[in-house]
Amino acid sequence: MADVDIVVTCAKGTERALKFELKDLGLSEVKGGEGAVTGKGDRSLVGAVNVFSRIGHSVLVELASFDADNEAALVEQLSTVRFEELIAKKCTFAIRAHLKNAPLTHSLHVERRVKDVVVDRFVSLSRERPTVDKKTPAVRLVLRWEKTRATLLLDTTGKSLSHRGYRPGKVKAPLRESLAAAMLALGHADVNRPFIDPCCGSGTLAIEQAWRALGRAPGKDRRFAIDRWPGDAMGYGHGFALARERAADEERTALPAPIFLSDWHPEAIQFAEQSVQAAGLEGVLVPERVDARQRDYDAPRPTIFSNLPYGERLSKNQLQLDGFYRTLGARLAAVDGARVCLLTLYAGAERLLGLGPPGRKWSLYSGPLRVTLRRWDIGDAGSPKGTAGEHEREPQ
Q1: What SS3 state is found at 228?
Q2: Sign of the C-alpha dihedral computed for residues 130, 93, 46 and 52 taken in this order
Q3: What is the DSSP letter of 282?
Q4: pLDDT tens, 212-237?
Q5: Order of strands across the sheet with 92-100?
Q6: What are the Cα distances from residue 219, in Å, to 22, 55, 176, 336?
Q7: Bridge partners, 342 (sequence order)
Q8: Are 20 and 391 in contact (CB under 8 A)?
Q9: Closest Cα to residue 46, out of 35, 33, 61?
């Protein structure tokens, strides 16, 4: 069976980590863009990426790509697509348009025009008109129109892969699960070393690290858009079944190294406990209420990884925040052999921590906010040879 062109969307700044992940999963000709990575693979890999990707958001399959320098050309080209093979009877559908320097600038208008083309094709074939459902369609088509190049894609995922299903809905300004996973990959949070998150919030970083360490595939137990398609799901269903079987076989039962998570805010601990339970990690992770400046970091060569507060929970008093960062930095500087990876929006955090210039920096986006992940290796913090497993190698 011929390879298909696969597009995996992601948060801006995480493309490097996603490229590494997709190559590991078996995709070829992997290339990074802005907020997406493309590659080629057989249809079984579409299932593998959906089930195993920790960093991607949606897995799209290219249906058609063509030049269109105006609306008429777009409609003419789309009219040749056999939509009746994609949208079965009683299946709902929706269109999403992404325009970048395209001949048309109004995405809603383009979505309506594509919808009209789909419906007109069914009418011309004397078939029942499919129903549009913008919220939860069985089939979602995505049109990307950049300059004069238009690409029509099929969304095989549905609800974003970043929604793992374990986090309480009341959490404020949370760190998205897929961004947390990308940070862990970029920062090389080796699963064979003790892991400590001293400002854990709802526990996302620790949970994602635990799932990495246990080899738990994030999509193992979830439903995808493809599960609502009839029959053999356009030939993709078998690949999803194989990926789910593989995920069940590869999951481990015990952590190779301990994972600790703590926070000083009582509400954060409550949310973390709920998240840990929903993630199926009760007894594996135990959130503790401890001040980050006073907790015990006495573990052999630990990875200390955290999304530090910047005023939303700790304090809105600048002097208190400055003092928190200075004291925490001094505490972390004394942990010989530690790999320290910190994310924060607080201005002057790097100077206040006093850990010196970071060895590595990554610019990421948490929603619309541009943030920086910084990594320091304290003393002899490099991974000993042979400790990094296949999926813990650092993205290049």
Answers
A1: helix
A2: negative
A3: B
A4: 999 999 999 999 999 988 877 788 99
A5: 28-32, 36-41, 4-9, 58-67, 149-155, 139-146, 92-100, 131-132
A6: 15, 12, 15, 37
A7: 306, 374
A8: no
A9: 61
Residue whose pair of structure tokens reads 């609306």 in the numeric block:
71
- Please provide the distance, in angstroms rounded to a whole number, between the alpha carbons at the two ends of the chain: 31
Q: Which is nearest to 391 in space by CA: 164, 14, 52, 57? A: 52
CA distance linking residue 279 with residue 282, whole number of Å: 8
Going by C-alpha positions, the residue among 182, 136, 187 that lies closest to residue 32 is: 182
* Residue ranges in the chain modelled with pLDDT below 70: 1, 172-173, 311-316, 381-396
381 close to 188: Cβ distance less than 8 angstroms: no
- 14: phi then psi, degrees, rounded to nearest 5: -100, 5
> Token pair 């400046």 is at which residue?
293
Amino acid letter for position 362: W
Q: What percent of the chain has pLDDT over 70?
A: 94
Which pTM does this prediction carry? 0.92
* Distance (Å, whole) CA 18 – CA 181: 10
The helix/strand/coil state of 137 is coil
User: What single letter denotes the amino acid at residue 165?
Assistant: G
Joined together, the tokens standing for residue 70 give: 């105006």
Count of CB atoms within 10 A of residue 283's CB? Answer: 7
Other Cβ atoms less than 10 A from the Cβ of 209: the count is 25
Element (H, E) at 269: helix 266-278
Helix (H, G, I), strand (E, B), or coil: what is residue 231?
A: coil
Backbone Cα Rg of the chain: 23
- Both structure tokens of 3: 């390879």
In this predicted model, what pLDDT tens digit does every residue of 203-215 receive, in sequence order?
999 999 999 999 9
Residues contacting 317, CB < 8 A, separation 6+: none
Q: How far is CA 205 from CA 98, 145, 184, in A?
A: 31, 35, 8
- For residue 173, the model assigns a pLDDT of 61
Written as six digits, the tokens of 121 are 């094709």
Q: What pLDDT is attached to residue 284?
A: 97
Q: Residue count of the chain, please give it.
A: 396
Cα–Cα distance for residue pair 386/104, rounded to 1 Å: 54
173: left (phi over 0), alpha (psi -120 to 50) or beta: left
